Amino acid sequence: MRCDNLENMKLNALQTADPEIHELCLAEERRQFEKIRLIPSENYVSTAVLEASGTVLTNKYSEGYPGKRYYEGQQLVDQVERLAIERAKSLFGADHANVQPYSGSPANLAAYLALCPPGETVMGMALPHGGHLTHGWNVSITGKLWKSAQYGVRKETGRIDMDGVRRLAREAKPRLIFCGGTAIPRTIDFPAFAEIAKEVGAVLVADIAHIAGLIAGGAHPSPFGHADVVTTTTHKTLRGPRGGMILCRAEHAAAVDKAVFPGLQGGPHNHTTAGIAVALKEAAQPAFREYARQIVLNARELAQELVARGFDLISGGTDNHLILIDLASKGVTGKRAAQALDRAGVVCNYNTVPFDPRKPFDPSGVRLGTPAVTSRGMKEGEMQRIAAWIDAVVSAPEDQARQARIAREVRELCGAFPPPGIRLQ
Ligand code: DSN
After folding, report:
1. What would the CATH number be for the domain defined by 56-283?
2. Residue scoring higher pLDDT (75 or 8)
3. pLDDT tens for residues 85-102?
4. What CATH fold (topology level) applies to the domain 294-415?
5. At 43, is the secondary structure helix, strand, or coil?
6. Does the Cβ of 182 fall within 6 Å of ligand 1?
């Protein structure tokens, strides 16, 4: 079995110019083909998105916005960016879209710059409870230049403590409130956050990086109509190239655009903008709704199968694409489990869990997600097999013979589910 999409994409020049990088790209392609990738923030883009991202648009400088640039020669790039903007607005039902942020963290920083001067107070979900670094966590610049109030989940339920959010908002009087995060397995209650933000006079920013594809596909409630500003990456459930976007109400459009450029960034990455435009077009198709629905069905099935095998899931299960497991009751740390799983061909990331007594680089949990396996066409039956493999590996993390046997079985299953963007010969 040979994976050589890169050769199909005519990478012979790369092979000649730089055989080492060419070989590494081929090997990475093979790795992505042969492994079950369960990192919830990763996916497989389509061949069309790959092609758009690898075009000569990378050669062009375009500081500014369509129709108002600082360089000539924008006849075609302007059209690409306008298409991306219109598709983003239409897919999500937003007044305004900025498709230039280089990724999610710069998109969030632009929201601060637009709406919350340094020194003011911001409120976000604590990183160990499922928030993101840029929601005011102390090691991030957002926790240094802004005063930060951090909310979390209830210990008993593993779900966001909305009473605590309200109490903290009343005390801290933040200028800006973030909802959303990176390890939240349950539906975000956007109307409840909006009500709290309104009560304390804060701007509500919904960071939908993880769930943007679910929202686009109708598998998670939408923040539009509730949040003032919505930030996202484009490469997770949305299945585009690595990038970011900010969508917002019309009243914040000028401030957001000014914050992205010239406030934070220089020239946009036009090849990425083209890839984003293609991904947005794909996400508007009926098949994408089915994809989003199946992501959630797969996550639920995987969660149920893991619970049945005695795994301790934060909040007891999932409503979306993501599962967070506390492995303390299994007597293994997240890092040891994730490394053993990787040797068995099942790739996830170790992750802190709420109230984790361990340190972030060797925490108690692992985080799983179903966007990538669902892109391969896997369904509930495959989730049952994956749960059994996870259980077998975690219950004997030093058993390398078992890991090698499972890795062979994983390769065989993966051979039957070729992912988008990778072809076999
Ligand atoms: N690192 C991303 C994730 O994996 O969720 C968030 O920044």
Report:
1. 3.40.640.10
2. 75
3. 999 999 999 999 999 999
4. Aspartate Aminotransferase, domain 1 (3.90.1150)
5. coil
6. yes
Catalytic residue (one of 207, 228, 301, 326) = 207
Global pTM exceeds 0.90: yes
Annotated active-site residue in 30, 61, 161, 195: 61
Mutate to test the pocket of ligand 1, among 182, 235, 348 (most ligand atoms within 8 A of CB): 182
259-285 residue pLDDT tens: 999 999 999 999 999 999 999 999 999
Banded model confidence at residue 423, pLDDT cuts 50, 70, 90: confident
Q: How far is CA 86 from the centre of its chain?
A: 22
Average pLDDT along the chain:
96
44 is an active site residue = no
- pLDDT, residue 9, reads 60
Ligand 1 centre distance from Cα of residue 199 (Å): 30
CA–CA separation, 209 vs 245, rounded Å?
9
- Say what the pLDDT of residue 12 is: 87
DSSP structure class, residue 261: I
Q: Which atom of ligand 1 is nearest to the CA of 42?
A: 4
Protein residue with least CA distance to atom 4, ligand 1: 41
Q: How far is CA 22 from CA 13, 31, 43, 49, 297, in A?
A: 9, 14, 22, 20, 37
Helices (H) then strands (E): counts for the chain: 16, 15
CA 146, distance to chain mean position in Å, is 24
Q: pLDDT exceeding 90 applies to what percent of the chain?
A: 96
> To the nearest 10°, the Cα dihedral for 300, 306, 413, 289?
10
> Is 82 assigned a catalytic role?
no
Residue 41 beta carbon below 6 angstroms from any ligand 1 atom? yes
